[in-house]
Amino acid sequence: MSDWRAVMSHAEPHPTPSESVLDACTLQALAEELDDSAPAISFLSTYLSMLPGRILRISTGLCLRDADASMDAVLSLKISSAMVGALETENQCRALEIMIRGDHFDSAVLALPALQNSTDRCFAEGPQLLVKAQGSLRQGQGQ
Predict the structure, then answer these.
(1) The whole model's pTM is what?
(2) Using one digit for the tens of pLDDT, what is the confidence trace for 113-126?
(3) Which of 2, 35, 105, 119 could serve as a FRET partner for 128 with CA atoms 20 to 30 Å apart?
C-alpha cells in the first residue's frame, strides 16, 4: 500500500451532524498559548474566510500539475487546519502532500472532492463555530 493510501485509510471519519468539524480542545490550547482568546478567535475567523481561496489554489496547482504551487497551498491549509483543530481537513491535506511528493497528480485530483467537502462543511458551519468558540474560550478564561 502506498504512503498516501495508508494515510487516507487512517483519516478521520466524516463527523456526524451532531459533531463539530473542529476539535474545540485544539482551539482552546491555541488561546491558552496566546494567553488571550481574541487572537485565537480572530485566527479561526481568518481561517474560515480563506478556505474558498485555499481550495482554489490547491485545485489550480493540481490541475496544472505544478508541484510547487500545489505543495505551498496544501501545506498552508494543513498547518492552519491543525492550528484550529480541523483534523479531517488536516489529514486530507497530509494525504495530498504525500501524493504531490510522489508525483501522483491524478490521484491527488481524485482526492480533491473529499477535501472540498471537508472545507465546505467548515465554511458552512463558520458562523456557528465562531459563536461556539467565543463562548467556550471566554468561559475557559473565567475559570
Answers:
(1) 0.81
(2) 999 999 999 999 88
(3) 35
